[in-house]
Design goal:
Elements lengths: L2 H28 L3 H6 L12 H7 L3 H32 L5 H10 L9 H10 L6 H9 L3 H13 L2 H9 L4 H9 L4 H16 L3 H6 L8 H7 L8 H35 L1
Length: 270
């Protein structure tokens, strides 16, 4: 093994350790008592480990917050897949006046930070009496995002036009062409969009924090932030909540890492 290869592997190992270390601290702190947290180094496990922190969370309202997050993630993902696909197909294949201008105006909204639109969105939801409701929580994002539409549009434009033309000659309409001809070829792009939407929805914090205030619609990220109350901070309890919130994303990575790698390649190419 050459010196260059040794240095390369050493750099990769150091980068991997730096990336994983914060998650290791979350796991170690979640299984420590307050006394162990103050008496041991952060990177050392507590002996003996304790499940009290997880028990305190799971014995309260935290399971309801997990269920709320799952519902939000599933609904947003389904909405993104359906509405994004239809919009992308219209921009890629259908011809109508102002199509390209409308598309690029919509894409221009990607340059606007999401935090800038939070106050206008909240005011709209307040006027519609949708604050602290599921409708208000889901409405701004369930109909698609500029990035998702751009990704699917580019994938549609990369498919051979002859397939669609042959189907039209056989009498197929636009909906039949989309559902029976193009969508089966779009599985890589749909997988990419699904992974991106699941991760972003599960980790969403700012909009749920602004639009929700009751337990019926509170999600995991907001619930973890709410653990920091009063004068002190219960780091053990917060890290236990972080561990519970992190576990589904780790499961997604373990079971779908092949598709995640494919999605990274696809998004890089597009």
């Amino acid at each position: 093994m050459t010196t260059k290869r040794i240095l390369l592997y050493a750099a990769l190992a150091a980068g991997a350790f730096i990336s994983v270390f914060p998650y290791l601290l979350v796991v170690l702190t979640a299984f420590k008592t307050k006394a162990q947290l103050n008496s041991t180094e952060p990177w050392l496990p507590g002996v003996p480990p304790t499940l009290d922190n997880l028990g305190r969370l799971l014995g309260g309202d935290f399971p309801q917050y997990i269920l709320n997050t799952v519902i939000m993630t599933v609904l947003l993902t389904l909405g993104q897949l359906v509405f994004t696909t239809f919009a992308a197909y219209a921009f890629a294949r259908l011809r109508f006046r102002g199509r390209d201008v409308l598309f690029w105006l919509y894409m221009a909204t990607m340059m606007v930070p999401s935090a800038v639109t939070m106050i206008p969105l909240f005011l709209i939801m307040r006027e519609l009496d949708l604050v602290n409701t599921w409708y208000g929580l889901l409405a701004p994002y369930i109909l698609g995002t500029p990035y998702g539409i751009f990704l699917m549009r580019q994938f549609f434009k990369g498919l051979p036009a002859g397939l669609e033309e042959a189907a039209r000659i056989d009498g197929a309409g636009p909906l039949t062409v989309l559902v029976r001809i193009l969508l089966p070829l779009c599985r890589p792009a749909l997988g990419t969009l699904t992974i991106i939407t699941v991760i972003s929805s599960w980790n969403s914090f700012l909009w749920p924090l602004i639009i929700t205030s009751g337990d019926a619609t509170k999600v995991v990220t907001v619930a973890i932030a709410a653990l920091k109350v009063g004068i002190g901070v219960d780091y053990n309890l917060m890290m236990a909540g972080g561990l519970i919130a992190l576990a589904p994303m780790v499961a997604v990575f373990v079971f779908f890492q092949k598709y995640i790698v494919r999605s990274v390649v696809l998004t890089g190419l597009k």
